[in-house]
Amino acid sequence: MEVYFLRFLNPSAHVHLHLVPSLFYDSKKRRRRNCKLNAIFKNEEDAATERASLRFQETLRPDPLFIDPYVGCLVPPDFQVNMKQHPHKHCLATKFIDDKLLTTMNHTDGLRQVVLLTDGMDTRPYRLNWPASTIIFEVSPERIFRKSNQKLKDIGAKIPRSCLFYHIPSETSDIQQILCSKGFNGARPSLWAFQRFWRLSGNLAMKECLFLGELPAWLGETEDVVESTTRRWMDKLFMSHGFNVDIIAYDEAAGNLGTESMVDNYNNILFVAEHLRFSDDQMEIWRTEFQRIEEEGDEEGFEEL
């Protein structure tokens, strides 16, 4: 069964969200949604470039939410800037995730692992002020990442010297195994970020780790979508896979930043989810410890006899 995620945290992942096909009960809806999935995966680079363009435009606004000094090299040379009064919701989500990433890392003891599930054009590894000793794992399409990474190197973008960065091609058949081979430790805290649709499986994240990101609302669409329906769908989806989820309204995020969101047809769901289950690494540590205690108990009983 396939497991799908948004890029953060996008990436990113007990990383089991069986969105497809287990939630697609109706055959007509399944065909419609699968068509959307196919469109997403076929136009990855175009979509990534569009998102980069939105972040580039935000950087050029008179009162930007953030300044991305590197994203300009990822935008086509003939790109026409269309300045807007208010920030795009994608940029609101980007700022929200930026702030949540750094705030959580700076206030959580031992948290130095970040997994970014991205479209291959995410500049966070270069532009964010990561705490010393942060290990950044990026999972993204190899082809897009390779082209973007070269452009970023050409303009002098560098990972902070005190941090480590590893890229994992999203096309690989076993992302979990490669993450672990690069040094990811499921018995230590980690933070996951997603800002595009992703597939991932595994029980990597330890209990209480946070997942930040956006989900496309059409995944849970019904014939008559209302806010309460979306919230019930999100609660059911996340709780059934060991997460407690909070939906963040874009207008709320904008208000907290002292601005307003652009009125458009952007139809994603911004969320923060807490992982409630133990990771495979945690379970293995406890199994080993339990076995050790049992063996010591057997030895003590033998000595008494």
TrEMBL record:
Signal peptide per UniProt: none
UniProt KW Disulfide bond keyword: no
One MF annotation (Gene Ontology) recorded for this entry: methyltransferase activity
Keyword Methyltransferase: yes
GO biological process, one term: methylation
Gene3D superfamilies on file: Vaccinia Virus protein VP39
Keywords, alphabetical: Methyltransferase, Transferase
Record protein name field: S-adenosyl-L-methionine-dependent methyltransferase superfamily protein
Species this protein is from: Abeliophyllum distichum
